[in-house]
Every structure is written in C-alpha cells, then in structure tokens.
C-alpha cells in the first residue's frame, strides 16, 4: 500500500534540505560562481551538470543541500531525485512542478516481498492549490499499477468485482453484477469467452453508476480479461507470461472512475467492466463457432485469442443503451498496436475529430501522450464473414489494431461520441518514476479531458 499523502506537504517554512536546480546548459557559468570547496565536492561526486544527475553539497554549518541538473518541466522531472536521495524533507529552489513524479518515484509493489526502501523522501510544495489533485493522480496511477502487477491467481473476476464494490463504497455509488450462466441470454459474448473458467472465476459484467440522474451521461468501459491463455488457439508460453496484465483496461477504467468521483464532476457516470478468464476446458468456445452478441449481430469466431473485443462488444452495447453523450473504452487489445507504436504510445481511435483534438492536446500537456490511428473504412470489409455478420479476427494479420477498433465501432451508435484506447498497461523497462511492470497510460489525459468538458 503506497501512502503518498505523507510524501507531499504544503510548504509552511518547515526545516528542509534545499534542492538547487540548474539547467545543464548553464552548468559551467553556475560552477564558476561557486567556492573552491563546493567545486571540489562536486568534482568528488563527478557532477558535471548532466541532465538527471545530482550531488549532495555540505553547507557552512552541519547541514547540506542538493544540486540537481534538470532540463525539462515534465511530471517526471523530480522522479529520479525521489528515487535516489536519502530519506528526509526537501524543498525545491529554481524549479516548479514535478510533484507527481516525486510521488511516483517512490512507488513500490510490495504485495509479495518486503519493500526495497522504507525511508520516505518528503517534498514541500508551494502549489497548495493542486496538492489534493496531485495526490489523487498518484494514487490512481498506483492503483492501476497494483492491479496489473498482481498475479492472476490473486486477481480474478471476483477480485475485480470486489475492487468495484470498494470503489462504490468510497464514493456512494451503486454496483450491479451479473455472473455466470446469468449472462448467457443477455450478454452471450461475455458468457462464451468466460464459461470455461472454474466456478469461482465465473465471468461477470460489473456495472457501477454514480452521480445525478439528470446530469450528462459518460460511460467508461474497461476490458477485464484477468488471465488469457488464448483459449483453444492457445498462446505459446512466452505469450502467456504477462497475461495477468490483460485486465489492464479494467484497471484504467476503475482508476479513472475514482478520479471522476473524487473530483465530484457533474456527470452521470456509468462504469462497465466485463470480467472473465479466457480458460481452456471441455466447454471452451471454439474456432468456427458463430456467437450472437447482445446487439443481435452474429460473430464467426475465427480466433479464440481475439476474445477481448468480444467481451467489449457486449459491454459497449450495454453502455450505449443508456444513451450517454460520451463513451471511453480502455483495453490491452492488440499486439499490433505495440508493433506499430511501441509500449509508450497508446493508439487512439475515434471518428469524433473534436474529441480526438481534445485528447491529443491533453496528452501533450500532461506528458501522457496518445497517437491517433485511423478507423479506416476501407478495412471494414476485412471483417466480412461467409456465414455470419462478421468475424472477430481477419486472416492475414494486416492492420490488426485498426480492424479490432473497427470491430468495436460496430457496437457503438454513430450519434454517441466514442474513443477507444489500446493501452499496453505495462512498462517493459524502467524510467524515472515509472518502474518496470504495470503502469497507467492515457489516464491523466482522459481525466483532464473530462474535467475540462464537465467541471466548468
């Protein structure tokens, strides 16, 4: 459990170690103004003003301060310092921002082992107005990380349901859950994907509602495949290794819902999480099966490892039934998205140019970027089936992220603004403030857009 509220405090003149920030380009000029004692100390620590480096310099008395070379104003500017400095209280001079990185630089996932460090690094901030929101953003990001990092044996559909229930209790929301064979009639795609799992990991559709009924409706949908074997089109062991993270879309939707409710945005929120385990058993759904969706469209199942879009289809249909003005969905949907854009840059799909503009601009401002890919109409014919309304996965592998998004688009009415984000939910290599493992992508971006649209 990460407690960030003790790591970022209002600056009321408390005793603290100063952090003096210099620009790398100004290092030589700055160094010339320092005493020989300071220069010798910096030389002993091999501090040459390289971006991201720092040194600890003794003061004239018994104290000491930090010199840090920082060349950006991203949220991660102070993250490396938070990871490396000794425990204590600090105040930054010569730089504004970076509090989020300071907090997340001290994130650790300790469910299965003792933490590497227990000495908190506390930052005093003069930006008291945004302190509460910064804490909430850090906590939401950490929640995504915790959920994704948790092993599938400890986080199945029932545990996702429990997370939604806990979230509802915090904010006075209402949760409705349909489970197991109850899904067969109303949500047949969710049922088909999850029916082979054991009884205690039965599929379910989790719905949370919150807010004034007459307020603008916004739906958040998150893919909750708690583990993905690939089904009968089984994945190789290397492909299955990280499939505990296949519920990363659900983690994003939960965390975003938490931010929305904590900020008391004036909307009617509808959170939907189709939660399943794509398991292998005698009653697993098969390649070649024709499945009927909640919308009534039939799907020829050409690949049991393309199950995420199936469960999202029923959830999107349900979301649209309430006639929201906006639907945002999050899913660890395709490897093709990673091939196209890598792990750091989630593709954004939407036919709504204004929504795309808002999301892309917010992503740039928050250093939480998205990259728009087209819902290319000419590729829609790749979903054609000889025996059903569509296939779930075209042959050939071309444009896999796009055809998956086109599949989802068929379940969203054209008069509803909709955006699909194919998030990876995993960081394969560590960066300051962003350790290897589960991570949130487009979370801060999405919240910024919702806040801009509705908070005023």
List keywords for this structure.
Aminopeptidase, alpha/beta, six-stranded mixed sheet, 20 strands, nine-stranded mixed sheet, Leucine Aminopeptidase, subunit E, domain 1, 2 domains
Give start-end ranges of low-pLDDT stretches. Answer: none
Principal-axis shape equals elongated
Number of domains: 2
Using the CA coordinates, give the radius of gyration.
24 Å
- Give the strand content: 15-25%
Within CATH, the superfamily of the largest domain carries the name: Zn peptidases
User: What is the chains' assembly state?
Assistant: single chain
Structural class: alpha/beta
Return the CATH topology of the largest domain: Aminopeptidase
Domain Cytosol aminopeptidase: 303-310
GO molecular function: aminopeptidase activity
InterPro entries: Leucine_aapep/pepB, Macro_dom-like, Peptidase_M17_C, Peptidase_M17_N_1
Keywords: Aminopeptidase, Hydrolase, Manganese, Protease
Topology:
Layout: E1 8-10, E2 17-22, H1 27-32, H2 36-44, E3 54-58, E4 64-69, H3 79-84, E5 88-93, H4 99-104, E6 121-125, H5 131-149, H6 157-171, E7 174-179, H7 183-186, H8 188-194, E8 204-210, E9 217-222, E10 224-228, H9 237-240, H10 248-262, E11 268-278, E12 290-292, E13 298-300, H11 308-321, E14 326-331, H12 335-341, E15 347-349, H13 353-365, E16 371-372, E17 390-391, H14 400-409, E18 417-422, E19 426-427, E20 437-438, H15 443-454
Parallel strand pairs: 1-6, 2-4, 2-5, 5-6, 9-11, 9-14, 10-11, 13-17, 14-18, 15-16
Antiparallel strand pairs: 3-4, 7-8, 8-11, 12-13, 15-18, 19-20
Helix pairs in contact: 5-10, 6-10, 8-11, 10-15, 11-14, 13-15
